[in-house]
Amino acid sequence: MSPSVPLQEMIRAIRSARTQCEERGVIQRECAAIRAQFRQADNGGRSHNLAKLLYVHMLGYPAHFGQMECVRMIASPRYSEKRVGYLGAMMLLDEKQDASLLITNSIKNDLSNSNQYIQSLALCTLACMGSAEMCRDLAPEIDRLLRASNSYIKKKAALCAVHIVRKVHDLGELFTKAARSLLTEKNHGVVHGAVVLITELCERNSETLERFRKTVPDLVQIMKGLVISGYSPDHDVAGISDPFLQVRILRLLRILGRNNEAASDAMNDLLAQVATNTDSTKTVGNAVLYETVLTVLDIKSESGLRVLAVNILGRFLLNNDRNIRYIAMTSLQKIVGTDHNAVQRHRGTIVDCLKDQDASVKRRALDLSLALVSASNIRSMMKELLSFLSSCPPELRSQTASGIFNAAERYAPSQRWHIDTILHVLTTAGGDVRDETVPNLIQLITNTSELHCYTVHKLYRALLSDISQQPLVQVACWCIGEYGDLLLRGECQETEPVQVTEDDVLDVLETVLQSHMSSPSTRGFALTATMKLSTRITENVDRIRSIVSIYGSCIDVELQQRAVEYNALFKKYDHMRAAVLERMPVIEKNSQGHINGETIKESQTVKVKPGEPQQPPNQVCDLLDLLGGSEQPLQPSPALGSTAPPMPVSTANTVGGDLLDLLGGLEPTPITPVATVTVYEKDGVTVTLSCEKQSDSGLTVTLTASNSTESDIRGFTLQAAVPKSVQLHMKAPSGDSLPARGAAKVTQMVVLNNPNKVNLKMRLRISYTSQGSAVQDTVQIDSFPGLGQ
């Protein structure tokens, strides 16, 4: 066996290896030599061998056989060996290994050593890998060192105390008095450690938080000293005096001032001074300003101070650093609901960020731009958003289109503008819109009788130029079928009249029917439109009969069924054809939604009442079949009893049946409000449910979700399922993100139709992403409030 070589030579040999196999050979030889020397009783080069082993560990090779050598070297009286031993313990040991318990006594002895550097080694090791048992045993020693006279030891002890509090929350009370006394120290390192320790204590105990609110004047005084102090070579970073300590103090002030007016008032002047005096030309100054803004927005600060904070974020938007622009928009997104007018002042800068090359900045700018849309700026903002839609990356088109639809529905200045906007979106990004866009636009067109002529002319032109956008083609076919007579007249005051013949219209519909780009649902729309034209034209009825008869043998069963039924109208029920194919009545808001020729079944959560009779087995099986995950255990709902997670399920009904279904249930019915109840509450996420009865069989359910945690929740979705006999239409949610501390809520409306009057039972699936972790939960509801089930 070759003798062990010095560390520098081993590193040189490893780096000069040409292949991974050659590198492994060098390391294996060295590890074998190190093992042999570890076995020798009298080994003068132990620290040298362990140092080489640590380098091998850093390269990713096994080095666990050196753990016991670390324990022996920690117990050595020599500082050079202790240093390498403690370093090895921090790298090779963790709290899950039994070997870590062997060094507890050595650490305790070294904490009482007269050499401050040996004490420091023990403190660093305990703070790095101390287990809960070690923390309980050594906590009194750390408290003693917090009161020592040596500043070097006190700052190390403070950071070690932070680790102990995180491991064992109950030990926080032990360090409360010592932590407060450390704030009077002159040494910045000690004060920094004290602030970190106090922050940890306040976040974990509300009583401790109230106790430390008395220290706000002291913290304000320390912060003022840092802001107005002159140049200090020991603490100056790019012209800012100890920015690390400033940031830590601002974070602590944010915690102490939250929901407390007295503490907030005590720090308002300081925050204004920091915001106005800190240099924003350097990254260090921007870091301090950002923490200042977060503190101002989180405490009960004055209105003028909040405007100043928003203006600072506005300046960040002009920064060349994309990271600074990103965090600025993230912060503005959180406060746009509470300080809407202040954020509106920076609307132009935010819209300019839509042109940024960075995908993350562009997505944040889109979220913020959609939140800034209001009745006063709808035209200008929509112009920018439509321009962005035409050039945005594919992954953002769906979100952009949905945001434009929601804004247009809420703030449309006129019905014509509303229709033009939606048609523009369908023309630009029709393949990326949600399914409910088609029925929603059809409903809008139906309700604006004065624009029927304008709309059908515009859609006919769009159909001539492009038939690849399926939602646009579906709406165009529907309008041509309903209002084809207005198109053939050629009289339209709102747009330039176009002379269209019956053959031209039928040619376009035949093109749609024969195009390989048309989906089955689109062909269904086109065939129905062709059939409807048989009552609106006079000279080409035989051609329509021929077109319909061709599809009586179509391979698509859905289209074949339509054609057969329409042929029956021609042959057996021709006297009823005009009545059956007359114009659709006005579609009310609460009518059953249809999505691209399919009826969408969705459902929401239902409460389970104790002692209530169970659903019949066949209905329960139907419900579980809808969910596709019945093997998962149900979680009890905090407010309603046991519940289970629902998943959104869509089931396709025949399109012919859908057409006739639209004729019923159009009379408005009185709405009966029902109390709101909580159906889900876990990990800071709360979902409440309220019901409004629309008719004997119709019910509108509103779900509202909120987030009371300290972090934002992304990708929030509600999915639901009901028994097969219940029809359900889940409308688009108001958003997919839940800001922290309940800053905004997400609402989702669900329309249920229960024609068979079965006992409603629904399962709800709740999915979201919090702090980078995906969460999915389920809840079941067995009764709706106010229905007397």
Description of the molecule:
With about 800 residues, the protein is of the alpha+beta class. Among the domains are: about 450-580; about 675-780, Gamma-adaptin ear (GAE) domain (Immunoglobulin-like), CATH 2.60.40.1230. Helix content is about 55%, strand content about 10%. It contains 34 helices and 15 strands. The strands form 5 sheets. Strands 7, 8, 9, 10, 12 and 13 form a 6-stranded antiparallel β-sheet that branches. Strands 11-14-15 form a 3-stranded antiparallel β-sheet. Strands 1-2 form a two-stranded antiparallel sheet. Helix 22 runs antiparallel to helix 23 (about 395-410) and helix 25 runs parallel beside helix 27 (about 470-490). The chain is elongated and about 110 Å long. Residues about 590-675 have low confidence and may be disordered.
Overall radius of gyration: 35 Å
Number of strands: 15
β-strand amount: 5-15%
Helicity, in percent?
A: 40-55%
**Which structural class do you get from the secondary structure elements?**
alpha+beta
Shape: elongated
As residue ranges, the low-confidence spans are 591-673
Number of helices: 34
N-to-C span? 84 Å
Largest sheet: 6 strands, antiparallel
- Average pLDDT, rounded to a whole number, is 82
Summarize the structure.
With 789 residues, this protein is α+β, with helices and mostly antiparallel strands.
Give the arrangement of secondary structure elements.
Layout: H1 7-15, H2 20-39, H3 46-58, H4 67-74, H5 79-92, H6 104-111, H7 116-129, H8 132-146, H9 151-167, H10 176-182, H11 188-204, H12 206-212, H13 216-228, E1 236-237, E2 240-241, H14 243-257, H15 261-277, H16 283-298, H17 303-317, H18 322-335, H19 340-344, H20 347-352, H21 359-372, H22 378-391, H23 394-411, H24 415-429, H25 437-447, H26 452-465, H27 470-489, H28 502-514, H29 520-532, H30 541-550, H31 557-571, H32 577-580, E3 594-595, E4 598-599, H33 617-627, E5 635-637, E6 641-643, H34 655-661, E7 672-673, E8 677-682, E9 685-693, E10 698-707, E11 713-721, E12 727-730, E13 746-753, E14 762-770, E15 773-781
Antiparallel strand pairs: 1-2, 3-4, 5-6, 7-9, 8-9, 9-10, 10-13, 11-14, 12-13, 14-15
